[in-house]
Each structure stands twice: as structure tokens, then as C-alpha cells.
Amino acid sequence: MRTALLSIFFVLLLVPLARGQLLDVTVVPEVQTAHPGESISFGVILENHEAIERQYVVSLSGTELEWREPNTLLVKLQPLETKTVEQRFYVLPTAQEGTYPFALHVKSFPDGLAAVVTSLTITVLPRFTLLTLDASVEANDVKATLEVDAGKDMTADVTFEILQGDRVVTSLVSAETVTGPGMFLIHKTLPLSPYEAPGTYTLRASAAGVVIEMPFTVGERRNLVKTVDKVPTVWNSETIITVTNEGNVEETFQTQEATPSSYPLTGLLTAPTDCSTNGGETRCAYSVDVPPGQTRQIRYRVEFWPDYLKILTGGLVVLALGVFTVTKYSKPVIRKRYRRGKDMTSVVLSVRNAFNHTQGVVVRDWVSPLASVVMEEFEAVRPVVRRSDAGTELVWNLGDLKPREERLISYKIQPLIKGNLRMPPATLRYKRSSGDMVRRRSNHLTIE
């Protein structure tokens, strides 16, 4: 009977050996990360393939064994039992960044028949690092999202920069309070001028000596804004076309403006590239280059002064005629004419006053020595007669003339020769209101 029981015991003992290994050990996870001063744990899965109860000792070998809590584990497993135990570590605050491998030893106790060696790894992270950086362009801003990893709560100065090549477009320094240990997101908005040229830019974030960059693209934007103002004056009408480039690409603005061809166009403000006239209309083409963010103007004037010049010229002509007319007809006038008779010729002097009262009017006339004055034929006012070898002088003292009064003086002569007789002009002398004496002459007279 005793022999039979021992046989059964050895058979049961050899069954796991026939299946394979007496013990399986799995570490989950095999690799973990931790910051200095942080606690972590690994799951150690023990599988007892034997049909008997076993005790196992779990130990470690490696360089930083002081991180382990506790130093050794003693685990009891029932026949064919699977159990998970926790292997804890406390990464000391003085730990340096790097990778630390450990060997995990599991051995049955006390016989040591079942023994397994596996590994686990601890990666010690830096106390502060930048993990990822993302950028998105929205309107005139760049939205930056920075993911950081910190071993503890801390405050760090984070610098955000937007660069195009070596040129710093904009920058922002922010003091950030980071909650650790673990990952933390920082969101910032950086202004970007709407006039920045299209192309590839770089978003850079830096803190605690760590730098991370990410490229992003600024697309092409075209937006020309045009306004038209008209400024009318008495002399001209000025048109001002204002063009503002709200995009980020230099553009050429072109326009054609029509004006009446009857009015001259001043092109000295903005010179047109071309002008043509057709059907009473002048069309001029203008072109200006407008850089991003800048404003250009096209200015031209339609001049009205030529019409005013014509009116002024006409007015001056009318004024000159008026002055001539007033000058001519605002003063006393003397005219000389004749009536030829059979034996004698009558000479008639007409004195017409203007619009003013005229004083001290004296009329003088000369008769050529080639004719004789008939003394008996004076009509109305008799003159003072003076004879000489040069001829005969006749003087009439008419006194004062009323406005628009007219006096007629006549005398008769007998020509002493045949043919034409040339008579000198008669003179009219009178006194102005200022006391000055004025003399005027009549027309020449030829008696045929």
C-alpha cells in the first residue's frame, strides 16, 4: 500500500515536467517610465504548473536596487495556481535621466527546483521636457499647443517664436505653471500680421534648455479694397480712387476712367498709361502697384476753368467795347460836314453833349486860304472871325451845354479854286468838373 502511494505521488510530480516548465513568469509591463521622485509598479504574473503547493522567492539584480520596495518577495502558490503580485519601485529624486534594466529572479523555496529569470526596464525621464508642438493658423493668429512632461509641479519660462528663415516674425515669453508629474498642455495664441508673405514658417518653443520646432504654412490671401471719392470745386472736379491691399501678395490695380472730352483732363496728379477719345468721351487707363498692407491713390481732375476762361474772355471783350463806347460817347462830340450849293458851300458843325453838364464850350474852325468866308451868311451864333495869310479862323463861344444837348453851327464859303478843297478838323474845347480844359477834334472834311 505504501509503495502504491509513493508511485502515485511521483507520477503527479512528473506530470508538469512532462508538460514543460514548472513555473512561468510574466512582467506587465516590461518597460515603464518615471520621473525622479515618482513611484511606479510592475505586475509580476506567476503561474505554478505543479500539482503541489509551492513557495517562491522573487528578487532583483541591477544597479539601482535601492529603488525597490520591498527588497524581496515571498509568494505562496497553490497547485496549478496563477497569481499576480506587485513589484513597486520608488525612483529617488536624485536619479539621473536614462534607462535602467533589472533582472527579475523567481525561484522555488527552499528546494530551488523551479527557477525563472526575466527582465524589466525603468526609463527615467528628465525633470522637464517638451514632447509635442502643434500649430494652426486662424485668421491673424497662430494657435500653438505645446505638450510638456514634468516630474513635479513647477514654473517654467516658455518662449514661443514664429520664424521665417532666420527672421523672427513674432515672439512671446510666458511663465507657465506646470502640474506634475505627468504630461501637461500649454495653449498660446501668437499674433501674425495679415500681410506676412505666403510660404513656410516655423513655430519654435523652448524652455529649460529644451527646444522643439514645427513647420506650418501661410497661404496666399488676395483682397484689394477700393473706395472712390469725388471732390467738386468751382474750378474743377477731382476724383480720388483709394486702393488698399488687405492681402499678403503684392497686386497691380488697373482701372479705366471716363470723362467728358469737352473738359480737359489733368494727368499731373496720377499719370495715365493710355488715353483715347471716342464719341465725346475720354477714357484713360491707370495702373498702380500696391504692396501688402499699403495704400495707393489714383487722382485725376476734370478742369472747368477753360469754360470760365471763355466766359472771362467774352466778358473782357464786352467790357472793352463798353469802355470804348463809354469813352467815346460819354464826352462831348464835334462833327463836321458840308452841303454844296450852286455858288456857295455850307459847312455845318454839330456839337453834341454827353451825359454830364459841360461848361465853357468853345468851338474853333479854320478855313483854307483857298476859300473865302461869306460874312453875311452866318446863322444862329455869329463867330469871332480872324483873318490871316494862313486862312480864316472862326471862334464860337457856346457857354454851357446841358446833358445830351446838341448845337448846330453853320457858315458858308466860296471856294476860290476848282477841284477838291481839304478842310482842317474843327476843335472843341471845354472845362471838366475838376477844372481841367479838354480839347477834342472833329473829322477831316474834303469838299469835292
Number of domains: 4
How is the main sheet built?
5 strands, mixed
Choose one word for the global shape: rod-shaped
Radius of gyration from the alpha-carbon trace, in angstroms: 64 Å
Structural class, from helix and strand content?
mainly beta
Task: Determine the CATH topology of the largest domain.
Answer: Immunoglobulin-like
Low confidence ranges: 8-19
Gap from first CA to last CA: 198 Å
Global mean pLDDT: 87
Number of DSSP helices?
Answer: 2
What is the CATH superfamily of the largest domain? Agglutinin-like protein, N-terminal domain, N2 subdomain
Strand residue content: over 45%
Q: In order across it, which strands form the biggest sheet?
A: 2-9-8-4-6
Portion in helices? under 10%
Please count the beta strands (DSSP E, at least 2 residues each).
34
Query: What's the architecture of the largest domain in CATH terms?
Result: Sandwich
- CATH class bucket of the largest domain: Mainly Beta
Give a concise summary.
This protein is mostly beta strands and 448 residues long. It has helices at residues 2-19, 305-329; strands at residues 23-28, 31-34, 39-48, 54-61, 68-69, 73-77, 82-90, 98-109, 115-124, 128-138, 141-150, 154-164, 167-178, 182-191, 199-207, 210-218, 224-232, 236-245, 251-260, 265-266, 274-278, 281-290, 295-303, 333-340, 345-352, 358-367, 371-373, 384-388, 391-401, 406-415, 421-423, 427-431, 437-441, 445-447. The longest helix has 25 residues, at 305-329.
